[in-house]
Specification:
Shape: elongated
Strand content: over 45%
Structural class: mainly beta
Amino acid sequence: MPTTLTTRFNDKSTGVITLAFKDAAGTAVIPTAITWTLMNAAGGVVNSRTAVAVAVPAASVDIVLSGEDLDYADGETRRLLVQATYNSTEGSGLPLKEEIVFTINDLTGVT
């Protein structure tokens, strides 16, 4: 089930989503690779943001969305699909996948 944020972002403004990675036991891990894709409610990619690689994986990273990423004209709801891999004592190249759902406020007069 996706994680739903209670924080709403404003139309064409800036928003930051902080990701924290943990293994199956709940211990913080540093992924070997992280990518994310931004979609609208119907699953269409928004602002060509597909399989965006995080340059420096860490146990906690910030995804900064702004401008066209948060354009209300593409719909009120966004879905951020995060995919990562990590190594642990349980194995190598283990997958982590999460979908984060959030909404955008429609601001009158934003162009």
